[in-house]
Amino acid sequence: xxxxxxxxxxxxxxxxxxxxxxxxxxxxxxxxxxxxxxxxxxxxxxxxxxxxxxxxxxxxxxxxxxxxxxxxxxxxxxxxxxxxxxxxxxxxxxxxxxxxxxxxxxxxxxxxxxxxxxxxxxxxxxxxxxxxxxxxxxxxxxxxxxxxxxxxxxxxxxxxxxxxxxxxxxxxxxxxxxxxxxxxxxxxxxxxxxxxxxxxxxxxxxxxxxxxxxxxxxxxxxxxxxxxxxxxxxxxxxxxxxxxxxxxxxxxxxxxxxxxxxxxxxxxxxxxxxxxxxxxxxxxxxxxxxxxxxxxxxxxxxxxxxxxxxxxxxxxxxxxxxxxxxxx
Length: 328
Prior knowledge:
Blueprint: E1 4-5, E2 16-18, E3 23-25, E4 29-32, E5 36-42, E6 45-50, E7 54-57, H1 58-62, H2 67-76, E8 81-83, E9 85-90, E10 94-99, E11 104-106, E12 115-127, H3 130-138, H4 146-166, H5 174-178, H6 184-199, E13 204-215, H7 218-229, H8 236-248, H9 256-281, E14 306-308, E15 313-315
Helix pairs in contact: 4-6, 8-9
């Protein structure tokens, strides 16, 4: 009976299958199904990787490409079996959901204790180094699934996300956190690059990662929405007015928060009205008194062409107006 090397129980979430025997006899056939790669491994090295689906005869279609093993079989004779391990690896797109198991506390100036956020999405795992994968995973474990990859990722996910969000800063503002969803594509690339380095240790990598959502607890989400809707507010007076207007929409409008908002609004209005009231109580300013007009000095009498011998001055008539003497 001819021996057949194949992976029959093929699951999308399983990364590899190791053929249980270590000796491959002449006449053995190899069957590769869609989404599988067959790896021949011997003495700590890969002898060959076969990716095309189909049924192959080991002697004529596989062995000629395994130079080291071919020599061993030739030396041992026709009835000899070659010692090698055969691994089947999953070559399909390996998509794995991911998510934070607990909230990540992101330091913020608005919330000193940190704002808790969570992330989730999908990532695609790919093989990077078959030798490393066989030595550290397949050669030790009987099976390895995407769930095992997820367990490894979860251990480093939270600090990686925190570092990528902060971007080297010690804290980040609420407005920047709100904008994370809009920048999720760039953030996903940063997280993927960091996770890729972590998985390289076992011969795997992250081909891509997308963020489906960035979420907050209900209370923080409400605060974020409030900040977004009031981003136009620039002073306490306007903020109080908006808060008071919001309180009117609540049923009854009599909550403690609404009452405080109304009191604050009243105080703010009083402060704004006080300068106007003080201005109204002050008497109107009196106009400054105008100085009395000064009469112009009489123009001097024009000098005449007659001379008074007695007064010895020039006059304009035949007789001196002062002494009555005739003029010359």
